[in-house]
Write a structure and sequence with these properties.
Elements (H helix, E strand, L loop, with lengths): L3 E5 L5 H13 L4 E5 L5 H5 L3 E9 L3 E2 L1 H12 L6 E7 L11 H11 L4 E3 L2 E2 L11 E2 L4 E2 L2 E3 L8 H15 L12
Parallel strand pairs: 1-2, 1-3, 3-5, 5-6, 5-10
Antiparallel strand pairs: 3-4, 7-9, 8-9
Helix pairs in contact: 1-5
Amino acid sequence: MANIGLFFGSDEGNTESVAEKIQACLGPENIDIFDIADVTQLEFDQYDRIILGIPTWDFGQIQSDWEEFWPDLENLDFSGKTVAMFGLGDQFGYGDFFLDAMGELYQVVLKTAASVVGFWPVDGYEFDASKALLADQNCFVGLAIDEDQQEELTNTRINQWCQQVCAEFDLDIDITLLED
C-alpha cells in the first residue's frame, strides 16, 4: 500500500488529470488515486496522509460526485491524519467564486483533521473573492489550479506544491518533476 491516498472528483477530466500529474510527481508507488464517485468511507481509513482534489463549478458549486459523497465526508474522522488539498477553478470567468468548493471542503476537514498542510500563496492569481482564501495568511487552503486561464503554469505549480507537501507529510521520497 502507498503512503498517500488521493481522492478526487472530476466531470470533464481536468481534476483527474491534475491528480494523475501529482501521482507522477510523487511517484506511483507512493500514492494511490481514487475517484470519489467510486469510494466509501473505508478507503480513507487506510491512509494517514490524504490529498483531496475538488473543482469549483460555475457560481461556487461543488462538483457532482463530491456533492453526493458530502454526507459521508461530514461523518469521516480525519483525526490522526495529515490532509492536503488542491482545487480547480476559473479565476476570470468566476472570479467571485474562485476555488469556493475547496474552501468548503477545507471547513469540513478542519473539524477533525490532525493537520492540514499544503497551503498555497495567492501571488500570481487575479480573483475577487474565494472561500478557499486564508486572508490572515495571504494564501489558499491548498494548491490553486486554473486550467482555463493559466494552464501553462499548472506543471510548475504542481512541481513546487509536491515538493512542499512531501516535506510537510514528512516523507523522504524522490520527486519526479513534470516538464513545463
